[in-house]
Design goal:
Blueprint lengths: L3 H15 L5 H11 L6 H6 L6 H38 L17 H14 L4 E2 L5 E3 H4 L26 E3 L5 H9 L4 E10 L11 E11 L4 H16 L4 E8 L2 E10 L5 H6 L5 E10 L1 H6 L8 E8 H9 L12 H4 L9
Parallel strand pairs: 1-4
Antiparallel strand pairs: 2-3, 4-5, 5-9, 6-7, 7-8, 8-9
Bound molecules: 3,4-dihydroxyphenylalanine.
Length: 345
């Protein structure tokens, strides 16, 4: 008569051999049943006690066979499952082109502004930024614009609601005032920013635009220094070798001038942009009026300075051959995307 323990061992062996391990679930159940901490083979090994001595060896071998068969079967099934997981992964086509990523583009006004700032930074100017909402003292009075001047009129300047003194700055020149009031010479700043004027919007003018203000105050700053600085700028920005300074008037500089750069008449574009003269008007400038220095707490006996102001949009229109300033403020992507190639990255 076969011993019960042998019957059980044979039964487990045939179960193990017949088990179908095709899914993760089946394989896990199998592992728990035959190899886990509470597996069925442990009590089977315990049956050894009940087996007579002369058959212990035979029983031990049978039990080991069940165990190794289960182990091998489990390992094999696991390998197959792992490999098929890996195959799924490999099915991803690594050579397929990636999802297109939309790159933004830089605004042409920002591009021109940054280019100009970089040019002045190279010769020691540092960037100063100030508020866009100003009071009339910083925007006008301190800069020599008298109270009855037409520029102060509601028609030209945006005042805040119910205010006769608070306004949207009409130029970046008040940054000069704030910088001088807050610091001591030598002062060498460049101030890019947005300005506002109550103008009728057309292809040529807008109620908002950008300027860059420059200011240099130190001992012995002369008109020759101004000319030198602007000549360098004209060369870097426009590749122009010649500039000219025409006498002009600004209430905060004395003397005042307007700077033209010589583009020449070689191309049809230069002909058109300079209206057949070869010269392009670029900026206003001058020696800071001693009265302004005094208003800003700087001793005009000791210090002198020069200042200049550049309109950005005019230069951007020229540089990119755009003929309508309104395009800069409409955020039309078809327009803006054309500046993608100018991306720095
Ligand atoms: N603020 C002047 C304007 O908006 C431009 C200007 C002219 C600025 C001469 C200056 C300067 O600093 O010296 O029309």
């Amino acid at each position: 008569m076969e011993l019960e323990a042998f019957v059980l061992a044979e039964q487990y062996l045939s179960e193990v051999e017949a088990a179908a391990l095709e899914t993760e679930e089946q394989t896990e159940q199998f592992r728990l049943r035959y190899l886990g901490t509470k597996n069925l083979l442990k009590p089977l090994f315990d049956e050894m006690r009940n087996v007579p001595n002369d058959r212990k060896k035979e029983f031990g071998q049978l039990c080991n066979k069940v165990k190794t068969t289960a182990e091998n079967k489990f390992q094999e099934a696991k390998n197959i499952l792992d490999r098929s997981k890996l195959n799924q992964f490999e099915r991803i086509d690594l050579s397929a082109p990636g999802e297109p990523m939309q790159l933004g583009s830089r605004h042409p006004v920002a591009l021109v502004m940054e280019e100009m700032v970089a040019i002045f930074e190279r010769i020691g100017f540092s960037v100063a930024e100030e508020r866009e909402i100003e009071d009339d003292w910083h925007n006008f009075s301190a800069l020599g614009t008298p109270e009855d001047h037409p520029a102060r009129d509601m028609q030209d300047t945006f005042y805040l609601q119910n205010s006769t003194t608070m306004l949207l700055r009409t130029h970046t020149s008040p940054v000069q005032v704030r910088t001088m009031l807050n610091g001591k010479p030598p002062i060498r700043i460049i101030a890019p920013g947005r300005v506002y004027r109550n103008e009728t919007i057309s292809a040529r003018s807008h109620c908002q635009f950008h300027q860059i203000e420059g200011l240099y105050v130190a001992e012995n700053v002369s008109f020759a220094d101004l000319r030198q600085t602007l000549t360098y700028f004209a060369k870097e920005m426009f590749g122009a070798t010649k500039i000219r300074l025409r006498p002009s008037y600004f209430p905060f500089t004395e003397p005042s001038a307007e700077m033209d750069v010589y583009l020449g008449l070689e191309t049809e574009r230069d002909q058109r942009l300079t209206k057949g003269t070869g010269w392009l008007e670029v900026l206003g400038c001058g020696m800071v009026d001693p009265v302004v220095l005094t208003s800003c707490g700087i001793d005009p006996e000791k210090y002198t300075g020069f200042a200049f102001g550049i309109g950005i949009e005019r230069i951007a229109l020229f540089k990119y051959q755009i003929d309508d300033i309104r395009l800069f403020f409409e955020n039309d992507l078809r327009f803006l995307r054309q500046f993608r190639s100018a991306n720095v990255f």
